[in-house]
Amino acid sequence: MESNRKLKMAIAFASVAALSVFFSLHYRRRRKQRSRRCACYLRADSKPQDSFRRVLADNSYSPFKHLKLEDGDSSYSHPYEAEITALLDCPQLEFTFYPDEKIPTTRDTYTWVETEQQLNELADILIKERVFAVDTEQHSLRSFLGFTALMQISTQDEDYLIDTIKLHDAMGILRPVFSETSICKVFHGADNDVLWLQRDFHIYVVNLFDTAKACDILSKPQRSLAYLLETYCGITTNKLLQREDWRQRPLPQDMVQYARTDACYLLYVARCLVGELKQKENESCFDDELHFVLEACRRSNMICFQRYMKDIEAAPGESAASSIISRHLNGQGGESDDFKAQFQDMVRRLCSWRELMARVHDESLRFVLSDQAIVALASKVPTTTTDIFDTIRQADFNTDSLSSSMPSPSPVVYSHMDGFCDLLQERIDNCNEISLVVLQKCLGQDGTCPLSVFNYSVLVNFTMRSTNKVVSRQNGTKSLKQVSRKASRELFVKKFSCKSPVYHNCRIYANDGRLLCYCDRRKLEWYLHRGLAKLVEDDPPAVMLLFEPKGRPEDEDNEFYIQRKKNICVGCGEGNHYLRYRIIPSCYRMHFPEHLKSHRSHDIVLLCVDCHEVAHAAAEKYKGKIAEEFGIPLFVRNIVDLRDDHVASEPCAMGINFEQAGISPLELRTAAMALIRHGQRMPQKRREELMQIVMRFYGGRDISNADLERALLVGMSSHERRRLEKKRGLSLKHSNGGIIPDKRQIGSTKKMMISSTVNRSKVETVDVSFSEEEQQYVNEEITDQVETEPINPGMEPEAPAHDNNNENTICYTSQNGNLQNEGLDLGDSRNDETQPTHNPKLSLLGHGPHGKQVVDHILKEYGEDGIGVFCQRWRQVFVEAINPRFLPAGWDIKHSGRRDFGEFSVYNPIKKALAEAAKS
Ligand code: AMP
Ligand code: ZN
Ligand code: MN
């Protein structure tokens, strides 16, 4: 067995060597001929994805565009958010997953679906089902973002294998089945599948039952499908097949069998798990009979809320480079600083080149050039072509078990050797230049490589960006307006930018010499004073902890915290002035649970004045969107419709608190929507509850269907309203009875939010003052975070030291060049007299209860995961607004912010409890 394997490896090695000789000869010949046109291996090699015509996620840096339904929000939001919300609110709990109590026996036949007609027939069958099981197989080696190579669907009667390569452009046919609320889709571990289906086909799953979530709730010892198949069906699977090449056609018999097995037992497994969930409910003493099943459904459908997003990073290959560098240099002592600097630089170049080449050729990173080859090349930079080949081949042969099935060096390296040599011999200077050179050589005029749907917009985006830069540089003449703008800008810079570097880049090491984090001076001193660390380096200072810290950053994928941070604008790289920018607006963050907001350095970045202004404007605009989406206006809390005079006069006269009498617009809308859509089918009790909610809005009177329709519009912007009306076929006149007064509709979003929720009977609960809690938060922010939050050995990020600027806005230059306080501009002159004379900083938090309500809502509905998703959305807004190119490596839209607290951290729950106990 072993010798057989060795022989195989030797043969693989020999054939790769032969190939490389062939390629080097070919390469030399090519150089002589200088026939650039047929240089790239892709001119001869074709890949299955070449046949795709409709590619939704291309390899460019532009954000992924989601399906835009006719009445949908934007191409960046989830098109079926309303349906999923309705489902969470009123879940379907009657399951008929599988009729039989017996373990299903393997069926003799299956249906291979590979024509559009067959796919249409399948859609017709599925739309009549109540439930079906789904799984997908991916291919990721010869593609940059990966693609779905096979989809398995099983109903009670039949297994279908869909050739999603052949049918790639037609898969939209199944979109309605997947988004149909009344059909339950059973997956196992749907997190990735849900995103993959969005990425490739704009297919969105609504109504999901995930057997892995059920496992979690039942506290099963394992949650893998293999475990479930073995436990419930007595079937063992060979999970190694998962990693086979699923592009193969015809699919080998063992892979067909494996693929079928992944889906066809799922319905039966789901039946068993729901049975157990129900049993668990009966055993427990909860009143709510459906507690466990309900929870499984909720968690499953929360997965549907995810949206596919492309990873965006500061510079091409930057995060991969950081990871390689820290992995390699950490295990290595005794190298000179010169060597280290050179090594790091070379790793960065190689990673940058690799990533661009991967995008251009639609290949995975590891196919283009392996991590270990990068380390080998950067350690001893080879000069001749033969040396380069040998170095790569040796590195791959030594370490990667996959290398036997992958050509080493890859054809990408072979066929683009001249660029690769330039890179190694440092004839290309920085990463930006690498990008330009690669794109010009490969895709530019007379480029070497084929253009395709995957790489076309890499080229277009990049060319546009670099020409913009050139134009703005050449534009030397300035208008008078620009001059005065410049003067006030300078004043602003002087007044508000940070006076000294924010990041001191001091380091903290663990007692085994591993780098734990970068931080500022005050934090180092804190450790030193308490004898918890000893100084090991002077400039910039570094300490080593004298105790065992909790965890290491790499262990938890927290690359971000072991990066040296530059004192420059993360947007454009400006280094002369910068100020802090909070990516997640304080009006929300201040209400997050303590442990989620205490690690803040990830979401506070430095921006120059110009980028700051752009980012701030985008955030303000997005707050308006959040307000609309959640139905929680920026200034008003509860709403009551008091159009019927007899109702209106009473509570007013009695001085009833409208905030209690009313109802939040979101609650109202969700209830109305649920009643309109599912009112007939839902249990009597639930229907009554929902009716109560709507009745509260109408002051307690009986409600008609027209009232329900009208309730759908409450709290929406006029734009949103028009769209909904169009969809539901309502005329504007129909509801023009007073919920939305017309004359205030024009103006800022803020104005719209106020006017759209205040009705004509003058229930105006506009509130611009601050609660005690908010006031306290503001004070806290001003009195610096450094003393209160640094002490989490090993895992604590750098808390930027307190400076004079604590909030995202203070003043911005208005068009006429004056400085004005934007925070106080509430866009409504009625508030002039009541304008608070607060510190301007306060006003910026000032959306009354909006922030708190939004956060409370998220916590209640989606828990802490919801907060995570919410933070991701703000990071996305930030990234889209300024396209930051200098973010520290490891900065991640998906950053979890969930980290353990060390023994000495003031946030350590045990420590906190002890401190509290000591006080009392
Ligand atoms: P599954 O959900 O098990 O059907 O996996 C679906 C797809 O995910 C497979 O086709 C693989 O492309 C990918 N995948 C899952 N787990 C792994 C793994 N451990 N290594 C590589 N690829 C995996
Ligand atoms: Zn090429
Ligand atoms: Mn599978």
Automatic annotation (TrEMBL):
GO cellular-component term (any): nuclear exosome (RNase complex)
InterPro entries documented for this protein: 3'-5'_exonuclease_dom, HRDC-like_sf, HRDC_dom, HRDC_dom_sf, RNaseH-like_sf, RNaseH_sf, Rrp6-like
* A Gene Ontology BP annotation from the UniProt entry: nuclear polyadenylation-dependent snRNA catabolic process
Looking at the record, which segments are called Disordered?
816-848
* Name recorded for this polypeptide: Protein RRP6-like 3 isoform X2
Q: What range(s) does the HRDC domain occupy? A: 340-427
Q: Which SMART domains match?
A: 35EXOc
Molecular function as annotated in GO: 3'-5'-RNA exonuclease activity; nucleotide binding; single-stranded RNA binding
Query: Pfam families this protein is in?
Result: DNA_pol_A_exo1 (PF01612), HRDC (PF00570)
Q: What is the lineage of its organism?
A: Eukaryota, Viridiplantae, Streptophyta, Embryophyta, Tracheophyta
Classify the source by domain of life.
Eukaryota
Q: Which residues cross the membrane?
A: none
**SUPFAM superfamilies for the chain:** HRDC-like (SSF47819), Ribonuclease H-like (SSF53098)
